[in-house]
């Protein structure tokens, strides 16, 4: 919404992964609350090359600007390459944001970056103590030219 996109699409990189499913559910919940019902938010499949080509084609043909969030960096990279190959203007037509923040992404792709070392250290502490708890690690937004 802050970047004036009319719709939000969540590109599902694969099915039946509990962590990805939970993240997508959270994104959908936040989008609904943030948009107060006015922001159209849809889940689009992005697991296969055909899925990604269809997603890019549909977004390019849409009459509005679309922000695409993908929780997995490799699939986000593939989407970016498909956008480039189809000459779809990014970010003026489609904005692209990845949700993982690893080194596989081109510098042009905006991402949420998580401190995986911090996550590992917290996990090791829990294993060492024998106590499990839920810890939230806040991501940092690394905005680039894809949003």
Description:
This protein is α/β, with parallel strands linked by helices. The chain has one domain (about 5-115): Response regulator (Rossmann fold). Helices cover about 40% and strands about 20% of the residues. It has helices at about 20-35, 50-60, 75-85, 115-130; strands at about 5-10, 40-45, 65-70, 95-100, 110-115, 140. It has a 6-stranded mixed β-sheet with strand order 2-1-3-4-5-6, sandwiched between helices. α1 links the parallel β1 (about 5-10) and β2 (about 40-45). The radius of gyration is 16 Å and the shape is globular. The N and C termini lie close together (about 10 Å). The model has no long low-confidence stretch (mean pLDDT about 90).
Quick structural overview:
The chain is of the alpha/beta class and 147 residues long. It has 4 helices and 6 strands; from the N terminus they run E-H-E-H-E-H-E-E-H-E.
Please tell me the total number of domains.
1
SS elements, strand count: 6
Distance between the termini: 11 Å
Instruction: Please describe the biggest sheet, giving its number of strands, its sense, and whether it closes into a barrel.
Output: 6 strands, mixed
Per CATH, the architecture is 3-Layer(aba) Sandwich
Helical proportion, percent range: 25-40%
Low-confidence stretches: none
User: What's the CATH H-level superfamily name?
Assistant: Response regulator
